[in-house]
Amino acid sequence: MLKKIAVPLLVLSAITAGLAYAYRADIAMKIVDQIVTERMKDPMASIPDGLHIGLCGTGSPFPDPQRGAPCTVVIAGKDMFLFDAGSGAAKQISRMNLSTGQLKGIFLTHFHSDHIDGLGEVMMTRWAQNTSPDKLKLYGPTGVREVHEGFHQAYGHDTEHRTAHHTAALMPPELAGAEVYEFITPSTTPVSVFKAGDLDIKAFAVDHQPIHPAIGYIITYKGRTVVLSGDTKKSAAVAQAAKGADLLIHEALSVDLVQKLQEAAVKAGRAKLGQIFTDIQNYHTTPVEVAEVAKEAQVGAVVLSHIVPPLPLPPMKEIFLGKAPEIFKGPFKIGEDGDFISLPPGSKAIEYTRRWN
Ligand SMILES: [Zn+2]
Ligand SMILES: [Zn+2]
User: Is-catalytic flag, 198?
Assistant: First the structure.
């Protein structure tokens, strides 16, 4: 009996496999059709009102196959902003099925290369995809104008090439680059640097000495608040700024793990690299210190980003966190590229989803 069913089933699956192989190109094109149709839809159309954080890069200057360089998307209602543009930011944003063409503005925390390496590509792809007459806006503390000028100059030939090829009507050269809004570097007391409708963004100085300026941001939309620490060592200014915030996104470095790298570098005779591994330990925050800041500020939840060093083995995450989850009792997560965190207005909810292709 079994044989009676099994034989025709085998024949049928062989025929199906044969047909699928014979028509593989047609099938692949049908799948491509579906994917590109989906990808061309307005990504913002399906995002509900609220304050949303997209982690498009949770890494650092370390090469890390699991984490892109610093890159955080903030969506408030229908407006999309980018905080820091590390290397590959434009591609990472695209992997989150979001479009740089819809960026209204970019905010920089400081000018360490890992936070600005991707700026040229983000500005160029924004110019290429944007269809509004509004130029991209670039916000940052004292020095941001020079950073922009450098990138804009480096992309000068590219701007000419693209206008020549696609016409000035399609790629107006005056919309290339960004309109710069340089604010005077604030003290540790937050100052408003952006206000439009229900969205308010404040900047405050953090402690990334000797790096100056180094800024953190408080983002408030319809009663929900997210604080971005930027790069900082444990700082009372962050605890103050994050008082009662719904979500704190904080940088984090494990001294224990970096120390391992330092020792290995010295052992291998790479004294300069060893010294750099020693130096970086004094201007970042350990996860335990982040937990102390979060406890003091009584924030609703913490997500760590700017993870130093890379954590290629799953058990390293526990080592990285150490006793942090015992100190801060609320949700305390290591952020991953593609994490999408939503704070709906009129509630205390924090929803964690993924957008990653
Ligand atoms: Zn950094
Ligand atoms: Zn830095």
Answer: no
